[in-house]
Amino acid sequence: MKPALILAALLLPSPALADWKPIEKIEPYAISGQSAEQLYLSIGEKGPVVGKDTAGNARRVIAHTFFKLTWQRDYQPQGGACVLKTARPKLIITYTLPKPAGKLAPALQARWDAFAAGLAAHEKVHGAGIVDMVDKIVAFSTGLSAENDPGCKKVRAQLTQYLDQLSRAQRQGSRDFDKVEFGEKGNMLKLIAAFLSEG
Q1: DSSP assignment of 85-108, as one string?
Q2: First vs last Cα of the chain: how many Å apart?
Q3: pLDDT 10s digits, 32-58
C-alpha cells in the first residue's frame, strides 16, 4: 500500500469510533390567550400528559423531553468467545413545547419569547443527559467480550445489566435536575414568575 493510501486508511473512522449525532425534533402544542395569565392557564389545560396524580387525574407539564433509542449491534463469535464489535445508536429526541396559536401584542410577544427560550433551554439539559447516557453505552458496548460464549448470551447479559443501571441513573438525574429547577429559588420558578409579572 502506498504511503498516501495508508494515510487515507488511517483517517477513515472505523464504525466503532465513527461519530454519531442525535436527531432532535420540536413538537409544539397550541395554546391560546391574550395575556400572560391566559397563556399560562392554557398550558395547564393543554400541556403534555405524563402520568396521573394521586387523585387519578391526568398530570400535565409545561414541556416534556421524550426519546426513542434503537441500535445496530454487530455481535461476532470468535472461537468460543463473543465480541460486540460495534454498537451504533439511532437516537431521536423530541421536545414538546407550548406555542401560542394566535398573534400576540408586541410587549406580550417579547415576554413570551423570553419564557419560551428558557423552557427550551431547560428541556435541552434533559436532552444532553440522554445523549451523555448513549455515549456511555457506546463506550461500554464497543469491544465488549466474553469467553466461552458461543451464543453471545453472556455479552448480551452484561450489556443488559449495564443499560439498566445507566437508564436508572439517567432518570434519577433528570428528576434531581427538575427538583432543583422547580424548587425554591429555582430557575424555572423564576422564569414563570417573570413571565406572569406585570413589570
Answers
A1: EEEEEEEEEEEEEEEESS---HHH
A2: 71
A3: 999 999 999 999 999 999 888 888 888
